[in-house]
Amino acid sequence: MYFPGDEGIVKIRDNDVDTDRWQVVVSLSDGEFKQVSFVNSICTSKGGTHVNMITDQIVDKIKEKLEKKDKNLNVKPFQIKGHLWIFVNA
């Protein structure tokens, strides 16, 4: 997949996840949550628990950082999730 430049793309590396088996990339979407995922080389076009697990962790971290910058900010997880495009290969 081609993205113009690398702006907005984050490759996730986590010591808690076997990175030889899990690959996660996060990018900005155009205002709705999108995901592309594979489990054991099988396309999971509707996502699933593996996508939810990764997405929830990412959203929690983003929310935490946003609220740390602005104590008065009250952002809901769905507001963050709606702007993410998650790619998972597990």
TrEMBL record:
It catalyses: ATP-dependent breakage, passage and rejoining of double-stranded DNA. One of its GO terms (molecular function) is DNA topoisomerase type II (double strand cut, ATP-hydrolyzing) activity. SUPFAM superfamilies: Ribosomal protein S5 domain 2-like. Keywords: DNA-binding, Isomerase, Topoisomerase. It is an enzyme of class 5 (isomerase). Residues 9-89 form the DNA topoisomerase type IIA subunit B domain. It comes from the Eukaryota. GO terms for biological process: DNA topological change; resolution of meiotic recombination intermediates; sister chromatid segregation. Its cofactor is Mg(2+). Its EC number is 5.6.2.2. GO terms for cellular component: nucleus. Pfam families: DNA_gyraseB. This is DNA topoisomerase (ATP-hydrolyzing).
